[in-house]
Design a protein that fits this description.
With 106 residues, the chain is mostly helical. It has a domain at 8-73. It is 58% helix and 0% strand. The protein is elongated, with a radius of gyration of 25 Å. The relative contact order is 0.09.
Length: 106
């Protein structure tokens, strides 16, 4: 098995390197997301199944997990934006630049 890399075209080596980098990046992103996500937000309810899919099915496994293996987080009432965000913006602007003059007729 004397593989000679000098016989392989340079463009093929570059393409292979790019594909390997994409695969490793997708695997790391998928595994980090899986580690940080609570078990309740994972389809099938078992993280070890997804670890095996991501690692054994290579690029397709990571794409499957990122596309279909995650459940969206439930939105709580405390996470919803408050309706008075315009008032808070005005208060921040007033604290940074001082109160506005009411003489401006805009």
């Amino acid at each position: 098995m004397g593989a000679n890399l000098s016989a392989v075209p340079v463009w093929a080596l570059v393409a292979l390197s790019v594909l390997a980098l994409v695969q490793i990046t997708l695997d790391v992103i998928a595994l980090l997301d899986l580690y940080r996500r609570p078990t309740e937000q994972v389809v099938l309810g078992n993280k070890w199944i997804w670890v095996a899919i991501v690692l054994l099915v290579n690029t397709i496994g990571a794409i499957l997990y990122l596309a279909a293996g995650r459940k969206p987080a439930a939105i709580s009432e405390s996470a919803a934006p408050s309706p008075s965000s315009a008032v808070r913006t005005e208060n921040i602007a007033d604290s940074l630049y001082g109160p506005r003059d009411d003489t401006d007729q805009r």
